[in-house]
Amino acid sequence: MPQGITVSTPSRLCLFGEHLDYLGLEVVAMAIDLRFYARVHRRQDGLLRVHIRDSNLKELGNTQVRYVEKLVDINEELVYTNSRDYFKSSLRTLARYGVDIRSGFDVVMDSQIPIGKGMCSSTTMIMALLKALMECTQADGRDDPDVLAELGFRAEVEEFGEPGGRMDHYTSAYGGLVHLDFGGGITTPRRLCRHIPGRFILFDSLTSKDTLSVLSSAKEPVLAGLAQLKPRGIHSIRDLAAQPGQAEHLAMLDELHRRKVRAAADNYAILHRALALLERDDWNGDELGTLLNCHHANLRDGLGISTPVIEEILSTALAHGAYGGKINGSGGGGCCFVYCAAEKADDILRAVQALGYPGRVLRMDEGTRVER
Fold this sequence. Notes:
- The chain is α+β, with helices and mostly antiparallel strands.
- Helices cover 38% and strands 22% of the residues.
- The protein contains 11 helices and 12 strands.
- The relative contact order is 0.18.
């Protein structure tokens, strides 16, 4: 295969706002140096031939490189054969946007991102494929992160009626540290020009998760609880946060809906405390770590998305000097991360890896890009 064009896109940490994006609220997320790569060149027979890392890429740091081949005939009607037929949905999304995909493409896809662990492996695969095909065809909008993020959201979420939000797509496209506001059905990205001192460490619980099931169990009760609060003029978590007498409003809900709505409202407040902190010059690691711990407590106790293994990892890291940490992604397994002083990172990494869970020290990274 000729050299072609190589693009890559980053995974992310959701620092604050987990399970808030699809409620039309806000998140603070950071792109990290775990990336998905796609190398592409044109064919002339109307076929999309993809060689992609196989499903054994399920653990952080897995270096076993094996590929499977996927073939799509673009000359035929692109009919979905499964509920996550992302190669076809990406082609259909590009065609609707006006990209000429008829010639066909060879694509080799590789990744450092474990599958099924809350690290947006599906999103980054789609984003890398879209970017690669747009670069190969010199499509309009290929350098616009908003265009790329929206195309990624359509191909992954809208096409299949899934319950996810836009956080992964926008963080992947923009890179760096971003504040994303999803209010009013409009995504408003804002880059946070902040170098965060210290280290973030990602850990793999070695437990896969059912993303759609977890999303539904966290999202639907919050929406149902808000529906019960509409007669009181509360239509969203923003309304609840802005109104006095929050406890009185929540008291009218049953225990399940009250707990889930309260967790979302509390995490919305924590996110704004974190934003205020990140925009100051005189903060320390303990403050950021405390907010991460509070956010995680709501995810664990309110939304019920943590696991015993995640709790073991986090408690071990805290015992060895981490400022704080939380589950990453939708939950129910997957990965978690901790934040610590630079000099504590090695001790924390060794302590958790001694339990048998892989880890990696991360750095902030760029968004979707052409590899030159």
